[in-house]
Design brief:
The protein is α/β, with parallel strands linked by helices. Helix 7 packs antiparallel against helix 10 and helix 9 runs antiparallel to helix 10. A hairpin with a 3-residue loop joins strand 2 and strand 3. 37% of the residues are buried. 33% of the residues lie in helices and 29% in strands. The chain is built from twelve helices and 14 strands. Strands 1-4-3-2-7-6-5 form a seven-stranded mixed sheet, with helices on one face. A seven-stranded mixed sheet has the order 10-9-11-12-8-13-14, sandwiched between helices.
Length: 371
């Protein structure tokens, strides 16, 4: 699959960048990495969460390829010492693709990562997320509540935004005023008011959230709770009769509660507002054509094609609230939740394994099996 490109004609960079992006769409890549090496410019594609080698470009083409990409997203081609970020949209083979470009200076030149987002890929129904029947019913009940705070946790790239969009699409009716604040707005949802964070203009999550509260909202989605200020405003919103959906970076559902406490939020406020926590991961699923044997073009000879979610949903019961009042650690909260019927990430990962949907190696890599 690896080739070294030697293109000397004047429009070589334009053609080469076009080839790189079209190959990415063909492979269903979420990201393109252009990595400067001593003598070459290396292309790698992230497909279903893993990086795969692409073409190797001759060093003589590096500057023109990078400049071409910068021009596409209106970045300063003369600035190579500082990181830059840009964004544009393309229609490739009938697919509307959102390109987000990030550059950083390295010792061998500027490294570029292009994130590709096909807009339709984020619009999944609740039934398509991969939840078990029990978790599906619980999740629907949580997002149907008139007020309270529901948090979705997991690492970057674990599908949190897709889950929240599915939730908003499910509850969206003409009788509700739904407002989101995101960084960035991943997909424009019909009949939903979406705000894009703009740090340069002074619009961060906290300031945007304060403004949203003056807009008579019923449901609020916060792209990410990163600090105490944002957490407190979100909790205040939940206390005053709003349903608040938000993401937090944490390892599992129980540690998400502890994460709020670590931010400085008092346990009595968390008890009064938090209705549930969803922790999630994404795992690759076996190719339906070759059944994981890596012997067909459909999966690019990897044995996997696409991903599904693995979930852990913690409902905040009175027993859990009692533990929170006592300052319980995440391990204690998790044990109590399991006694009350919560299926952990690991247990749901094992379910996928036993159903022949993915491999043990994939579960270990993505889900972190309990010891």
């Amino acid at each position: 699959m690896e080739t070294t490109m030697h293109i000397k004609k004047p429009n070589g960079a334009i053609a080469l960048v076009s080839d790189i992006t079209e190959q990415a769409v063909k492979l269903r890549a979420s990201d393109i990495h252009l990595e400067p090496r001593v003598d070459t410019l290396k292309v790698r594609y992230r497909v279903d969460g893993l990086l795969h080698d692409g073409m190797t470009i001759h060093k003589s083409m590096q500057a023109s390829v990078i400049s071409r990409i910068k021009v596409m997203v209106n970045l300063d081609i003369a600035e190579w010492r500082l990181p830059q970020d840009g964004r544009t949209f393309f229609n490739i083979n009938g697919k509307e693709i959102d390109f987000r470009v990030s550059t950083i200076p390295t010792i061998h030149g500027e490294k570029i990562v292009m994130r590709l987002l096909e807009r339709k890929s984020l619009l999944l129904g609740l039934s398509e997320l991969g939840m078990t029947r029990e978790d599906f019913i619980l999740f629907k009940s949580l997002i149907s509540k008139p007020q309270g705070m529901l948090l979705v946790s997991g690492p970057t790239g674990s599908g949190k935004t897709t889950t929240l969009y599915a939730a908003l699409s499910h509850i969206n009716t003409n009788s509700l005023n739904i407002i989101t604040i995101e960084d960035p707005v991943e997909y424009q949802l019909p009949s939903i008011n979406q705000i894009h964070v703009n740090y340069k203009a002074g619009l961060n999550f906290a300031r945007g959230l304060r403004s949203i509260l003056r807009q008579d909202p019923d449901v609020i989605m916060v792209g990410e709770i990163r600090d105490e200020e944002t957490a407190r405003i979100a909790i205040q919103a939940a206390l005053t009769g709003h349903l608040v959906l938000a993401t937090v970076h944490a390892n599992d559902s129980a540690s998400t509660i502890v994460r709020l406490m670590d931010m400085g939020i008092e346990s009595y406020l968390i008890k009064a507002t938090l209705i549930g926590v969803v922790a999630q991961r994404l795992v690759r699923v076996y190719c339906k054509k070759c059944k994981g044997k890596a012997k067909c073009k459909e999966c690019n000879f990897t044995g996997f094609n696409g991903r599904t979610g693995v979930y852990e949903i913690l409902r905040i019961s009175e027993d859990i609230k009692s533990l929170m009042s006592k300052g319980a650690q995440a391990t204690q909260i998790k044990k109590e939740a399991e006694k009350l019927g919560m299926k952990t990430l690991s247990q749901n990962g094992e379910r996928l394994l036993s159903n022949g949907i993915t491999s043990r190696e994939e579960i270990i890599r993505s889900v972190y099996l309990d010891s």
